[in-house]
């Protein structure tokens, strides 16, 4: 008898019941198991007792700020978290990501996009689990051998400078997750460079010119305007 494979468990922390039920129903149709909490207190408790695989978090909760919830969850677990919020302020997005959110989607949103982002975060989480032997990452027609530090495109080796490779490696390590400009600048160049966003623009442009089929319309190496960058895997 084969072992039963459980479906991914999604905890939705959203105080607008109509939106929460809509998200839950759509995700259930895609094979997910869902739980709904409408408060920060209930969401925090469920995050540690319901054993979810991923959290979808609204920032405007009736008994607290979703930013505080993100910080509290991230302090104890690496669970992926996607923020759903009507807040469009750039600083709020950056704060949520810096606190540990993995992605940020502004209301109103398309359910297809949310589902795709949930799947992307679950794929990333599976890839970074201890014991995963894979060291080769496929990005379209690009292969990155992390063990050998070799990058090829359509079978031909691509030369990357040390900084270009370090930026690509950082994006791969957080594949699917939006990294803020400050996070990337700190990890790739060092803490002294967090206020030099032009470095990131220049080097993302170089990576796209070497790895993207159409650098002007990148498919994999994406920039989230005013927030940061992510590798769309």
Automatic annotation (TrEMBL):
Annotated source species: Sutterella seckii
Response regulatory domain boundaries: 9-122
Annotated OmpR/PhoB-type domain residues: 134-233
Transmembrane segments: none
Record keywords, A-Z: DNA-binding, Phosphoprotein
DNA-binding region per Swiss-Prot/TrEMBL record: 134-233
A Pfam entry, by short name: Response_reg
Family annotation (SUPFAM superfamilies): CheY-like
Keyword Lyase: no
GO BP terms: regulation of DNA-templated transcription
GO cellular component, one term: protein-DNA complex
Keyword DNA-binding carried by entry: yes
Protein name per Swiss-Prot or TrEMBL: Response regulator
GO-annotated molecular function: phosphorelay response regulator activity; transcription cis-regulatory region binding
4-aspartylphosphate PTM positions: 58
InterPro entries: CheY-like_superfamily, OmpR/PhoB-type_DNA-bd, Sig_transdc_resp-reg_receiver, WalR-like, WH-like_DNA-bd_sf
Superkingdom of the organism of origin: Bacteria
């Amino acid at each position: 008898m084969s072992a039963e494979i459980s479906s991914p468990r999604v905890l939705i922390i959203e105080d607008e019941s109509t939106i929460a039920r809509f998200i839950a129903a759509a995700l259930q149709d895609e094979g997910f198991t869902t739980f709904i909490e409408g408060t920060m207190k209930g969401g925090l408790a469920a995050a540690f007792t319901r054993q979810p695989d991923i959290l979808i978090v609204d920032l405007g909760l009736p008994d607290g700020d979703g930013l505080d919830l993100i910080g509290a969850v991230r302090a104890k677990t690496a669970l992926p978290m996607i923020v759903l919020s009507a807040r469009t302020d750039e600083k709020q997005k950056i704060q949520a990501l810096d606190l540990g959110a993995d992605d940020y989607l502004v209301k109103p949103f398309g359910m297809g996009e949310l589902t795709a982002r949930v799947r992307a975060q679950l794929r990333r989480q599976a890839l970074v689990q201890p014991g995963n032997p894979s060291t080769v990452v496929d990005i379209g027609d690009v292969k990155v051998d992390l063990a050998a530090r070799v990058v090829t495109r359509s079978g031909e080796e691509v030369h990357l400078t040390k900084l270009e490779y370090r930026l690509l490696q950082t994006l791969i390590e957080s594949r699917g997750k939006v990294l803020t400009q400050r996070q990337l600048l700190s990890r790739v160049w060092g803490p002294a460079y967090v206020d030099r966003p032009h470095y990131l623009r220049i080097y993302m442009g170089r990576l796209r010119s070497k790895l993207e089929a159409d650098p002007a319309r990148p498919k994999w190496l994406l920039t989230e305007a005013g927030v940061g960058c992510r590798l769309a895997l």
